[in-house]
Amino acid sequence: MWQQDALRRFAIRQAFSAEDESEVVSILKAEHGVSQPKAADAQPLETKHLPEGRGSEGPVQLASVGNVVNANRLAKGQVLRFAINGLTTVYGDNGSGKSGYVRILKHVCRTREADSVLPDVFKPGGAAIPTAEIRYRLSPTEAEVTAETWTSGQEFAATLSQLSVFDSRIASISLDKENELAFVPFGLDVLDKLGELCGRLKETLTRERSAITKRIAENRLGFGDDPDITAALGKITAKTTDNSLKEVFSWCDADARRLTEVSLLLNDPINQAKLLRARKARCDAALSRVKAATLALGEAAEVQLKTKVADLTTAREAVRLSSISSFAEEPLRGVGSEPWAVMYEAARAFSLQLAYPDREFPATQPGDHCVLCQQPLDDEARKRLDRFEAFVKADVETRAKVAKAALAQALTSVDAALVSLVPLTEEVANADPADSAWWTELLTVAECLITRAKALKVAVEDGGWSNLPATTAFNPDMAAEWPAGLEAQALVHDGALAPAKRSELAKEQAILKVRNAFSEKKAAVAALRDLLVEESTYDKCLRAVAPNAITSKRREMDEAHVQGALQAKLTEELQALRLSSIPINLGFKVAKAKSRHQVQLDGLVAAARVKEVVSEGEYRALALACFLAQVRQQSDTAGIIVDDPVSSLDHDRRELVAERLVREAKNRQVIVFTHDLVFFFMLREAAAQFQTPFEGRSLYRGAEGFGTVDLLEPWKAKSLGQRLDTLEKVEIKKLEELRDKGAAEYEAYVRSFCDRLRESWERLIEEGVFNETVVRFNPAVKTLRLDEVDVSDEVADHVYWGMTKISNWTAHDPANAKGLVMPTPEELKKHIADIRECETKIKASRKAASARRKQRREPPKAVVL
């Protein structure tokens, strides 16, 4: 099925994309069981996918391509019409937009080597999708003309795939690996493409299979080089079942723990012991702080704080009562209170340190000043200070100070415990992961202690002893078991230094590793089996893309349907284009599913490329001959589109090509695009010679953009009458529109108009005066037409003055002194009438000259008596 799907894509695609190749390979893999995401849906090749041949009614006829939007900057609103019979020749200079129309037609006709049709890449706002309207008739007997819209990226009606397109890229000609010019007849090249696809798929599949093989090797390396393991792995194949994989060795948690222990004992025991003891030291230090904090914040500490608070309260009350009795007569109340005591002690410090450093406090001698208000002390003030000092030194005040200091000392223990617990949070974060559970439990105890310490301090201030949190249920002996275990492990590592012990441990480690390898690698063993299965599916795919069957079928089809008939038609085409003198023959080869019918040079004694031996014109002619032979092999009447068939041919062969295409146009619709004006004339003349219907078109870059269509022949090919009609019916109207828009634009168009007037005068001389005896772009000299050639003085003067007037406005650098004013459209109409008047005189003169010369070719009439 994958081959059928690939052939379908080759038949309908203009290019086999990377996405196509990816989808085809996914179908191939799905057919052979390769694991992958969802494969693309396979569609077999059917008749509807193939380019349609003509039915009994006749071939499809292309009528026009037009209304192009967003394609190669082609002008909008243009319609390029084609004659449905005979020859249509479309002329366009380089840069006229001709190639844009050809690209569209290549897509419409499903040419597999079609160039991309780009949107206007200079247009701002993003690239829109190119579209065009295609009109065609299904057959010559069909009355209705079908109009469909072509959209870039979407398949167009298969009907127009009957038409064949020739240009420099899609002539079905290429150079093969032996540097021989080769071509593949239409239709059979899909088998070649299938063979090429098989080659690419083989490379892709081989590359992917190699990656799987590498993964298999890496998988095996993951088990080490133990011979028992290697032997067990060798029994795993693509046919190994899931039940077989369940027999992998057992393994338990105890085994895993023991393997870890043994590995640590063997891995630098000295350093391991040092690390264990460092962990123990950190645990011991933290535990010591928590134990101390537990004692400092326990129930005994709580009782002690309560007692000291009570003592301080009692002492302060005694001080208060004493001060009331001692200082009742003082002018201010509060003497002896706590704030007063603070002020008094501050006054003492000021007096001893600064005011009276050499005197005892209070300084109450005559002349001394109060250290608070700094006023001289009178007798009453001195006595008052002495009473204050006596009060402060009294026993009741001393006891109050002692009680306060005792409470402060007790609170210092609480603060110290609180400070010692705060760093535990950071220590827990930095602890060894193996100790994290122990540290977490210790931190929980510490947090409870911190809460209690803060509550004790609050209770001292507000007396809320009933709100205290309970003491923590902490067992320091149990907490000490973990650090003790770390020390025990360190001792084991110390013992692992003994050689005998290390040897014993190494053997145990090896045994455990072997057992663990199979248990831990159950997934790896299953993966190994799956990789082997996938490798086998790739082997099936590689056998499927082998080119042998395609090569055999290709050779069979070539021998049955191609060689004889195609050779005969190619010989006829070579004779028609006078290539018979070149020693060439049609070779045949099929190798690796790839077929080529080669145009080979006979008699070569040295290796040479065909293009290096034949001329460029001959090389191009060979391409055209192969194309025409192929078209005739495919169909006798289906139309063809030819783009620049003589872009590099010599003059003589251009005539042969023109004649050949004109002859072909008698049997089928032929559309020729060319930028060679000489070739355009040759085609028109050959059409007249062989009485083949002919239509001329021209494309140019106009104000509307590239590809502006003129449904008449190009200006240089127009007859005098056609030129004058164009000037009168088209150009004059444009001048009238421009007259009011601006002098500069009007003047430029007038000069262009006058150039065409001058060229019309020249065409009058060629066509009228010399009766086309000698014509530009035509090498023939038609001497018999001299019978009507007659140049009178009147005609000569008429031409002279007409050309002189026009030259005033067409000169490259006209004399400024003349002060010329641009002619109006009405004045230019008179110049057109002037040419017509001169033409009338010439025709009359030619008629008279022809009669005279005819008479001169008859013998004078004899006189008979």
UniProtKB/TrEMBL annotation:
Residues 35-58, 845-865 are annotated as: Disordered. Residues 46-55 have a biased composition (Basic and acidic residues). InterPro entries: CR006_AAA, P-loop_NTPase. Pfam families: AAA_13. Residues 610-686 form the Protein CR006 P-loop domain. Signal peptide: none annotated. Residues 845-856 have a biased composition (Basic residues). One of its GO terms (biological process) is DNA synthesis involved in DNA repair. This is AAA domain-containing protein. It comes from Nitrospirillum amazonense.
